[in-house]
Amino acid sequence: MKKRMRKTVSLLLAVVMLVGVLTACGNSDGKGDTNGNESASVSILIPSDFEGQMRAALDEFTKLHPEIELDIQISSGDGGATPTELSKLAAGDNMPDVAMGVENFAYILSQGLAYPLDNLYEADEDKENALQAGINNYTYDGHLYALPYRIQFNGLLVNMDLFDTKNLDTPDYDWTIEEFMSLAKAATDSQYSGINILVSNDDTHALQTKLMGGMMDAPYQMYGYNMDTHEFDFTSGAWTKAQDYIKELRSVPGLVSDELKEADKRNNGIADAYDNKFGGSADALASGKVLFGNHNTWETYWMAKKFNFKWDIYPVPHAENVSERIQTHVDYVFMTSAVTEENAKAAYEVVKFLSYSEEGCLARMKYVAENQETEAMYTPASSDPEVLKAYGDSETIPEGMKYMLNTISEDPEKIFIADANKLIPNFWSDVDEYLSQTEEQIKNGSDAHALAQDLQNKVNAAAADTWATFETKLKTHLEEFYESHPYEKK
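Now predict its structure.
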């Protein structure tokens, strides 16, 4: 009996040792976590302006996934430079596995640098927590190429204290352009102005562009772009009516505070009208003398430092006969075509963490809350209930931003794509040449209504050529991807 017992024990020990050897062989580097997850290495390109937030978030990722080794690379540029930076790295055969950005994702696709996420996303049991509007945005020809990284909103800064000071009714978040126009006029007198600026540093954020969007129902998006037909609409009346609204605002003396600084016809040639109204070199907006500011949610970091009055960020108002849609920008995080079968699942864990996972969103919200002096308020691209609750419970997030995130989380159809330029190839280049010509004619006295059809025809001809070329490239790159990554083909 004793001999048989010793033989049995020896046999069991041998089996245990063999299982251990086989387990080690099953891992790409012989290591894994306590749950048996296979180890892998993932390189990630972080834009220079995201470094602090991303390092803090990825520290939390490493705690959750010790089996995944992260190789963090800091980009030479900011989030807007990701497409060109990635193209350079690809040319040198040095692409990272994961990257993120805020501009021109269509260019990344046209270069064949993105990894289709279809199978990985479909297999994820938490995929319902992704913000569906963002998933829709980054799906091309039935294939998902990126996850939503964060959300930003076009909006209007509102000085809430001035409603009481001027005895004005506070509008609901679901408000109309007519309400906005009436309030801006009513707030304007010898001491106060209705809004600070109409024109931003680019056409994307000009008030005219925002108001144009507020006068268009689905499927029309930014600048009247139809995501289904890939055509622009300049003839339905929204483009010309938006210009009429801008003229109407400028027709009220002193309504646009910062334009008082200009010695032109709008202020009757009085070069010091701004100083006379607001006192010396005072900033009218910061000193609480302006009801509305043409500003957006990514600018909140300086608002929190600069303003001593109660303020909020409202959605862009809409026309009375148009349903409310929230003007939304969806930034992206994606896997590059450098990812291989060995680290594909690990790379997806990274992009999921930076997109819609509860832990990833909460980690970034915590970091931003602790660094308000330098970080813009972060709006997660997640519909995870715990994430939405934390966002709603935040004491620093303006109520208007909470309203906007809840609205698009509950109903993806209520999103207005305010960043079509990052989703559609050559968006502005197809528009700008003909638009600038048309705007010059308008300045010289031509009627915008009479020019709209010709503008639309020219822009759509250019856009059609662009899209046809893009679709061909997209199809070619997808075929090439499946040749090099056959395991992903459905």
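The chain has two domains: 36-152+331-414, 156-328+422-466.
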